[in-house]
Structure formats: C-alpha cells, structure tokens
Amino acid sequence: MQYAHRRSLGALLVLLLCTASSLFAQDTFKTETSSGVANIRIAVPDFKQLAADPQAANFKHVFDTTLFNDLTNAAIFDIVSKSLLPQSVPGGPSEISVAQWAAAPTSAAMVAFGAFNLQGDKLVINGFLFDAKNTQFPQVLAKQYTDAASEDAARQIAHRFADEIIFRLSGGSQGIAESKIYYVKIGGGNKEIWAMDYDGANQHAVTHLGTISLSPRISPDNTRVAFSSLGRDGFQIRMFSLVLNRMVNFPAVGGTNLSPTWNPNGHEIAFSSSRSGDPEIWAADANGSGSRRITSFRGPDVSPVFNPRTGAQLAWISGRTGLPQLYIMDADGSAVQRLTDTGYATSPSWSPNGQFITFAWDRKYGPGAPGGQDIYVIEVAPGPGGAHRWIQLTHDGGRCDFPSWSPDGRHIVYANSPDGRAEHTRIMTVLADGTQKHELTGAGADMPNWSWK
Amino acid sequence: MSAIQIKIRKALLLAATAVAIGAVTGCHKKDSGIDTSALAPAPAASAAAPTASITADPLAIDQGQSVVLNWRTQNATSVTIDGIGPVNNNGTQTVTPTNSTNFHLTAKGDGGSTEANVRVTVRVPVAPTAPSSNISETDMGSEAAFHQNVQDIFFDYDSYDVRPDAASSVSQAASYLTSHPAIKVVIGGYCDDRGSAEYNLALGENRANAARTALVNAGVPASRLRVISYGKEKQFCTEENESCWQQNRRAQFSLDR
C-alpha cells in the first residue's frame, strides 16, 4: 500500500521534474539521492521477543519502530510492507528459511531480523542481515548488542544496527542513524543551544546561559560545539565541551563575532568578526589563538563554511556588492568566485562530497517583492556556459533558512516558518532532491546543524 | 543585561509620556464624571448606561511607595478592578504596585458596561549619579533629555549608509554629547526581521558603526562610544509592514552606565 503510494508519488515527481526542467534549464543535474542503482528491497520484521516481561515489550516496540524508521529514512531501500511478511517471526539463523522471504509476495532481497531479550537490567539484542537470494550462505551480518535496559538504549542500539545495515548495502557510505542535530531552542526571550537525534527524538538542552545563543556548529569529532552568544559587549564566539559537559574558554575580542564553522581537520575554525570595524571572515585555532583575517572588502561578510572534503575552500555570504550573495574562495582568501547573481542568499552548507552547496535564497528579494526564501542546492563546479546550475528544494512553504547537510549527503535539515514569524520556526528534513519533507520539531527551534558522523 | 536596561529605559520613557498625556486628559475625564450627563437622569425609562472613572494619586511613584486609587461609578451593579477583584461601586484603596501598572476598572449595570483606566508609573531605581550642576564633568543629564537630544538613526532596507535626513539628528546628538562629557553611549545596531539572522547581525554591526563614525566625525571622542549589534534578535516592532520594519532598521543610542 505504502509502496504503491510511494511509487505513484515518485511518478508524479518525475512528471513534475520533467515539466520543471523544461521551464528552467537549470534543473538538470542530479544530487546523490537520485543517482545510483534501484533501491534494494528489504524486509524488516519485528524482532522476536525472548523475555516475557511486559517492559521488554515496550522497549522492543521502541527498537522495532526506530529500526524500521531508520531504514526508511536512509532512502536507499524499498521496505516491504509488514502485511506482506511471512507469519513466522525468526529470532536467529536457525529459525529462518530465506526462500520463504525471497518468494512472492514478500519478494525481499534482504531480511533484517533478530531476537530481543531483557536479562535482568540488561538489554541483549541479536541482529542479523540475511541475503534472501543466497540460500547456501545467506548471512551478511550478525551483531550482538548489550546495554543497560532503557528506552533510550533500545533506540540507540536500533540506530547502530541500522547504520551497520546501511553501511553494508549502500556501497560503503556511512549511515546517519547515529548522527545528531544541534540547534537553537527559542523560549522565554532567550535562545539556548539544544541537541537531538537525527530523527527528532531525544531533544535536550546543551547550554543554560540565559541569553541569546546562535549558530551552533558541532566539531568534526563530536566533542565541542562552537556557537555565538550575546554578552555585555555584543556577540562573541563561545565553546561548549560535550566531553566535559561545560563551557570552555574561548577568548573574546572586539566587535561582533558570529557564525563559526569547523575545518574538517578539527583544529581550526573560521567565523565572522568585526574587530576591525567591518564584518570580515577570520580564522583561528580551535582554542581561539592565532587568529588571522581572510577577507578584506567593505560590506558584511558572514556565515563561512569549509569544504568538508578538502578543508581548502570556504563558501560564505558577502554583501560587498549590495544584497548578500553566495561566494567561494580558497581558505587563504584567494580565488574568490561569486556563485549567485541575484536576490538575497544566506546560510550556505557544503555537501560532504564537496560538489554542492545548499543555501537559503530569496531570488526576488526587495521592497514590495513577494519573494519567498527557500532552500536551494547549487553546483560548485560551473556548468556549460560558466553558470552554476541550481535546483530549488522547497516551494511555497513559508520562510526557509539554515540548511545543513547530513553526513551521508542524502538529507538536508533546515529551519522553516510556515507564516514567516520567527517564533513559529521549526526544524524539517528533506532529501537532497527535494522529496520526503518532514518535521523533526515543533515550533520554537531554529538554526539546525547536522553532526559530521 | 544592558539590552534589558535599554528596554526598561525605553518603557519608562514611554510610560512617562503616557502619564504626561494622561494628566491632561485625565482631569477632564474626572470633571465630566462628576458634573455632566452622568448625574443627569437617564433619558429614557430603560436602564441607564453605567459610567465610571478612576484616578490615582500620585500617578508616578518610586518603587516601594504607595498610591491611592479613587473610583466613582453610576448605574453600576457590579464593579471590578483587574488585579484587585470585585469592589464597591465607589471607593478608595491604597495599593503598592511593584511595576508600572494599568488599573483597569469594569463597571457593569443593567444598561451595559463601561470601563475606566488609570496608569501608575513606578520608577525603578537607577544607579545614583553624582550631584549635578548645569554642565560638569560628571553630569550624565536625565534619561529623557538624553533621548530628546540623542535620537535614533534610521536606515534604508539592507543599507548601512546614514541617510541625509539623519544629519540634523547627528549634529544635535553630537552637540549634546559635547556639552555632557560624562556621558558614554552604547550604540545598538538593529535590523528588521526579514532576511537571515547571521547576515542581519553583520548588517546591524555596520549600522551601529556608521552611526558611531557619524558621531566621531562630528567631534565626539570614539572612546565614549560602544557598539553592539543585535541584528534581528531584539525586535522593537513585530508587525509585518514597512512602517514597522523601518522602526526596526535603526541605530539606537543608550546611556552606557
């Protein structure tokens, strides 16, 4: 049912894209999401419950739901509808007959199954991935997980198992089920830094500073969050250690300092600083020392982001010619190129493979112009004729901003306010080809930043 | 911290203005409440519409002081005051509000209902300043005089150039600051809520810096001027229209205490 629905949706999208591409010659390149082989058909039966404990049933439900959603969200599978699965619930290799799963109507190429047990206060979960077409040696993956019994542990184990499956079946790209999203929580006149799992679960506060904190950026090794926070002398770069669970020192300098970004090497950050009067892009060591200026051109320069594949280039937003536009340059400030030619462009995020930049763009910005601010993806390398090709991911859904790429390059998280009011902003995800949008938070969440792994 | 102070100062200033206006119109209301149509019998046999008036004495107090509320109603069957509850039709009561408060009286009668308001302004204590002579090294001047003479500068959209129409307010501000050398100023840069938060913080910084440069060029020492960009994080006006956006696109001057 769901499958058929998705198929018809897909057909509709193809139709739409064809129509769109005839209208806009721009909409021609493919993001990773839409490239590659046909999706693998995988069956994901609920795990077999070994303990009779009713609490175990609750944990197992969380586990089953999370695993199913993770594999769905990965967007590389056709998941077999649960109504088409065989009646038997296999808990281990001896309890499964793969031929039954390969046959119609299941017609699965892969089966992810296992056993869920609660032993004392510990969860013991055995997970298997079997190739249904290989009757002789079907086992692709066998994993055992043990953790203290809790709903959160059940969820995290499902994420880990999902990432193992995705890694095996996606041609080696890492899954994102264990990744986190850092964001700004709006409440009570303040803005604090919060974090959640990639699927919107486990939303929790990171900072409690009682002021306005913006632009969280997680370090490549997941140990620190750099952000910008309003103090007596304006906005300054601040640093929170997730290892020590407290703020760590980052020296304050003059002027407004905001929008940090991490070099993929983890040793350097770049940010916008107006210590010299005009907001320019500066870089510094991760502890704040050794700061050096990269841009020097009159007009606001903000929102730098490193090319995560090389660390050798920066994309950023500059108002040097009037309305803010998207630029790229080498990390030493040379080889400046402008990518957008019109409108109001903000908030770039570079794709993990370095080929694309997603950003927010209002192509018809101006007094009286009814332009909408939407999420776009632009190709870094110039297309035929020298223009940079782009596609638009969001349409008519209200104000969108702060796109951030997932580590697998397939998803983009962004902030959306349906009516344009700041307090109604929430966090959404979308596939990098513009399909499968869904909400991760309710109103009051802004500026998402997806972790590097 | 300073941003909150700015807000309080702004609120106080607005409240003071409101009281000043209220003092003029308020007297008139009280007179009419006592001697005109209110006392005359209702024109028809049907129930007369209630009338109500409320006054406070004094209208402005320091934090911790009391104020006497005095209200009169006609043709009312039930009278309530928000925050106090049901009260007699006519009466007085002493209250000690901690914040500036609107006392809102509702009188309901057979002929309908009517309302009356009085605003009591509570002065929040500020850090004491040294006793002042007319012009001295330590005279910070009054908050009101500061805002009267040092007025906010407004900007065009996505622009941080000081407009020609701001020249007179810049020179007025510069001469006031020159005659009050003890005053230090925080210049806050603000933007309307369109566009991106990060870009607007940079734009606000440029706006505040442009205002600072204008004052420095007019002879105010740069050491007395501190710049903070608030971008679109502290909106003065939250409606989605051009007049509101214009109010937000400004460099705002505040006393740097």
Structure described in brief:
The complex is a heterodimer of chains A (453) and B (257). By secondary structure, chain A is mainly beta. Chain A has helices at residues 2-23, 54-73, 98-102, 151-169; strands spanning 40-43, 48-49, 77-79, 110-119, 122-131, 139-148, 180-187, 190-197, 204-205, 213-218, 224-231, 234-241, 246-248, 257-262, 268-273, 280-285, 292-293, 301-306, 313-318, 325-330, 337-338, 344-350, 356-362, 374-379, 390-392, 399-405, 411-417, 426-431, 438-439, 445-450.
Show the helix and strand layout.
The complex is a heterodimer of chains A (453) and B (257).
Chain A: H1 2-23, E1 40-43, E2 48-49, H2 54-73, E3 77-79, H3 98-102, E4 110-119, E5 122-131, E6 139-148, H4 151-169, E7 180-187, E8 190-197, E9 204-205, E10 213-218, E11 224-231, E12 234-241, E13 246-248, E14 257-262, E15 268-273, E16 280-285, E17 292-293, E18 301-306, E19 313-318, E20 325-330, E21 337-338, E22 344-350, E23 356-362, E24 374-379, E25 390-392, E26 399-405, E27 411-417, E28 426-431, E29 438-439, E30 445-450
Parallel strand pairs in A: 1-3, 1-4, 2-4
Antiparallel strand pairs in A: 4-5, 5-6, 7-8, 7-30, 8-9, 10-11, 11-12, 12-13, 14-15, 15-16, 16-17, 18-19, 19-20, 20-21, 22-23, 23-24, 24-25, 26-27, 27-28, 28-29
Helix pairs in contact in A: 2-4
Chain B: H1 2-35, E1 51-57, E2 60-62, E3 67-74, E4 78-81, E5 85-87, E6 91-95, E7 101-109, E8 112-123, H2 143-149, E9 153-154, H3 167-179, E10 185-190, H4 197-217, E11 225-231, H5 242-248, E12 250-255
Parallel strand pairs in B: 2-8, 10-11
Antiparallel strand pairs in B: 1-3, 3-6, 4-5, 4-7, 7-8, 9-12, 10-12
Helix pairs in contact in B: 3-4
